């Protein structure tokens, strides 16, 4: 059902009304100037003439009769009064113009959207009450969303709400959504991104909560590989192996790449079998790629049979024994999926041949309230499969741990900010799991640049499922996809606009007519041109609401964020060196 409101806006003002108000304004201003001339003028002249306090006595005494003479300083006072009136007129005109400039069609539409009691559950009081039920401090009610445009109320997503944001490029999503969510995380936090700005801004404040790890295989933040993580530590059974293979498959092909029903499926199954074999035999992940370059090697099948995976062993052996062309196609497909394992810089982060660096245990993240940033770039040679695998490993570990806590949810929520999710964290099962994670105390925020980005990763139905599974949906502007914007416009709703028309003539006299028309609160053009600093919130159980997200510069952590940027940003290093 669409949101329906009523708004009475006359389309025209009768000419006689304009003349009446103009005349009244002239009389009032003229009377005020005359009153000022009488009182100030005679006081300046020092003639000792008593001026009545009643404005009407002044008017009749000076204009109609001769009871009150005009002061000699009339020109001076009249000039000064005129200047004051002119200044007031200019000031009022400027204020009106400025107010009208601020009150764009979007700002006016905010009055017709969610406000007041509609949003009670999202206020500090409502979200704080939910936080107490989860054993949290109500002073930290949840993930900040923004201020309402109409009432300036601060809104929060509770510690069980899942978020999805769609903001176009350079619309402030990192400044106003990602960074504030990271700063507000009460415990462990995981962040994915393809840029270093979010790392530089938050790693300083987050280090107060616990240790900070930056997983940077493609040197997005030029982080040294002084620790490592073994993706095969995630592979504890055949299901995990298949999931890890799926991460490689999802990140290895472009959105518009053609797929082959047989070779893609067979290649992924082969890769899963080799990952499982390497994990069972405690081999490094590099062994998997080595096996892929040796299509006749039966060692992985023998390992799988030895560790009691006979069916998977048979599947791998069947590929090895297949005709050359078929075998070459399956192995070649699997090689493409695991292509990131050919990069030495990437392997430095997932292997430790010298055995001299600490290994990350994902359990440490939750136990110590730490923060991990998983970074990669999209395109050829991306480390996206490993970023996705690390993210999934942490979230699934948190899910497993939640089972040991009251109510089956973490006592301190895990916050995950999946920025640029469609590029660097292609988690294909995410739509199916999204709402479930919220009930486990795992709060995720998936940030996309457009609706079509999500469709490329999860498909049309998968993207709709992800969108519907989120309790908090925020559109931040900058998107030019009319189909998506039209659906948002329908969700925002319509209102009944009443217009009054006044007409007059010599014969029929003056007539007034009123019409009512149904209009969109925000149409596609309004949403496409949404002003920077504004966003539209779609929250479960509440009408769409116009908000102003709060950037980190307006938060209490502003100085801590600035200090972090100065310390870690490359320009900050250069500035220090210059001093």
Keywords:
579 residues, alpha/beta, Rossmann fold, 11-stranded mixed sheet, 3-stranded mixed sheet, 23 helices, elongated
Class by SSE composition: alpha/beta
Average of pLDDT:
87
Report how far the terminal alpha carbons are from each other: 62 Å
CATH superfamily of the domain at 162-222 and 362-470 and 565-579: P-loop containing nucleotide triphosphate hydrolases
- What is the 3D shape? elongated
Short synopsis of the structure:
With 579 residues, the chain is an alpha/beta fold. It contains 23 helices and 14 strands. Helices cover 49% and strands 14% of the residues.
What does this structure look like?
The protein has 579 residues and is of the alpha/beta class. 49% of the residues lie in helices and 14% in strands. The strands form two sheets. It has an eleven-stranded mixed sheet, sandwiched between helices. Strands 1-11-12 form a three-stranded mixed sheet. The chain is elongated. Mean pLDDT is 87; it is low at 6-13 and 573-579.
């Amino acid at each position: 059902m669409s949101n329906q409101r009523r708004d009475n806006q006359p389309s025209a003002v009768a000419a006689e009304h304009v003349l009446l108000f103009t005349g009244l304004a002239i009389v009032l201003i003229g009377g005020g100037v005359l009153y000022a001339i009488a009182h100030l003028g005679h006081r300046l002249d020092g003639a000792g003439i008593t001026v009545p306090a009643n404005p009407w006595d002044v008017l009749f005494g000076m204009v109609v009769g001769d009871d009150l003479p005009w002061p000699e300083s009339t020109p001076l006072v009249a000039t000064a009064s005129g200047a004051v009136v002119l200044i007031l007129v200019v000031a009022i005109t400027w204020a009106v113009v400025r107010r009208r400039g601020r009150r764009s069609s979007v700002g006016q539409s905010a009055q017709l959207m969610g406000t007041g009691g509609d949003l009670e559950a999202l206020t500090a009081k409502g979200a704080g009450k939910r936080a107490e039920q989860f054993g949290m401090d109500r002073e930290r009610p949840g993930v900040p969303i923004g201020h309402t445009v109409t009432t300036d109320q601060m809104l929060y997503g509770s510690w069980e709400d899942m978020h999805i944001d769609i903001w176009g490029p350079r619309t402030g999503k990192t400044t106003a959504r990602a960074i504030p969510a990271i700063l507000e995380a009460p415990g462990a936090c995981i962040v994915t991104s393809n840029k270093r700005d979010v790392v530089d801004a938050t790693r300083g404040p987050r280090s107060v909560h616990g240790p900070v790890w930056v997983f940077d295989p493609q040197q997005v933040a030029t982080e040294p590989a002084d620790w490592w993580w073994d993706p095969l530590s995630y592979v504890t059974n055949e299901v995990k192996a298949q999931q890890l293979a799926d991460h490689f498959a999802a990140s290895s092909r472009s959105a518009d790449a053609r797929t082959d029903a047989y070779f893609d499926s067979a290649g992924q199954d082969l890769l899963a079998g080799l990952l499982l074999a390497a994990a069972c035999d405690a081999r490094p992940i590099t062994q998997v790629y080595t096996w892929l370059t040796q299509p006749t090697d039966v060692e992985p099948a023998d390992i799988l049979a030895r560790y009691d995976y006979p069916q998977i062993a048979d599947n791998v052996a069947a590929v090895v024994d297949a005709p050359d062309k078929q075998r070459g196609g399956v192995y070649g497909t699997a090689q493409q999926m695991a292509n990131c394992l050919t990069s030495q810089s990437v392997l430095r982060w997932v292997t430790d041949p010298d055995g001299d660096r600490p290994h990350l245990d994902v359990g440490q993240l939750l136990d110590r309230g730490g923060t991990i940033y998983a970074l990669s770039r999209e395109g050829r040679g991306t480390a996206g499969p490993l970023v996705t695998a690390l993210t999934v490993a942490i979230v699934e570990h948190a899910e497993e741990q939640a089972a040991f806590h009251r109510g089956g949810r973490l006592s301190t929520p895990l916050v995950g900010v999946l920025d640029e999710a469609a590029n660097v964290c292609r988690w294909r099962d995410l739509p199916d799991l999204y709402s479930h994670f919220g009930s486990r105390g795992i709060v995720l925020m998936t940030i996309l640049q457009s609706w079509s980005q999500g469709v490329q990763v999860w498909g049309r139905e998968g993207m709709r499922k992800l969108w519907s599974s989120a309790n908090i949906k925020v559109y931040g502007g900058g998107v030019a996809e009319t189909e998506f914007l039209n659906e948002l416009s329908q969700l925002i709703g319509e209102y009944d606009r009443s217009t009054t028309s006044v007409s007059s003539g010599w014969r029929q006299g003056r007539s007034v007519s009123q019409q009512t028309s149904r209009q969109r609160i925000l149409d596609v053009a309004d949403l496409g041109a949404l002003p920077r600093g504004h966003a539209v919130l779609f929250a479960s159980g509440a009408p769409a609401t116009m908000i102003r997200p709060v950037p980190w510069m307006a938060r209490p952590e502003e100085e801590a964020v600035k200090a972090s940027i100065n310390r870690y940003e490359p320009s900050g290093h250069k500035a220090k060196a210059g001093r």
